[in-house]
Specification:
The chain has 5 helices and no strands. It has about 150 residues and is mostly helical.
Length: about 150
């Protein structure tokens, strides 16, 4: 039998544990964030109505003077650059989730697995059961005489 030298939990499981821990911590902040966003929404609704009509007029003027060919080229170049940045950020986030998961899970799981593996190796093999001889079976099947003693003696 091949002996395993090191027990290792795969990185995706660590990342899942890290994501769960991060989600739990962020959910604990949720009531305060909801209250803050509610206050900001009320304040922004008051100012949004005033600025909407002014902004609409300036957007009409800008749309008439826009070079859409140049805008399309700029958008394509920007999209490629943003995709590369997003890919790098995703890799960094994944790496941080793996590290967080390793901290959450800790070495206790690995140590427990090592103990279980050591116990499995140290456990004795079961002893072979020998077949009973016909004489032993017959002797075990005979009823035994019961010795009775008189009461009080």
């Amino acid at each position: 039998m091949t002996e395993q030298t090191k027990t290792r939990i795969p990185a995706p499981l660590y990342a899942a544990a890290g994501a769960g821990d991060l989600a739990w911590q962020e959910l604990r902040k949720l009531p305060a964030v909801v209250s803050q966003l509610s206050d900001r929404a009320v304040a922004s609704l008051k100012t949004a109505n005033d600025t909407a009509s002014t902004t609409a007029g300036s957007l009409r003027e800008t749309a008439g003077a826009t070079d859409f060919g140049k805008l399309r080229d700029t958008a394509a170049t920007s999209a490629v650059a943003f995709a590369q940045v997003a890919q790098e950020r995703a890799a960094a986030v994944y790496t941080s989730l793996v590290a967080r998961g390793e901290r959450v899970v800790g070495t206790g799981v690995v140590e427990a697995a090592d103990v279980v593996n050591a116990d499995m190796v140290a456990t004795e093999e079961p002893k072979a059961v020998e077949a009973a001889t016909p004489e032993a079976v017959a002797a075990a099947a005979k009823p035994r005489k019961r010795v009775t003693r008189p009461a009080g003696k």
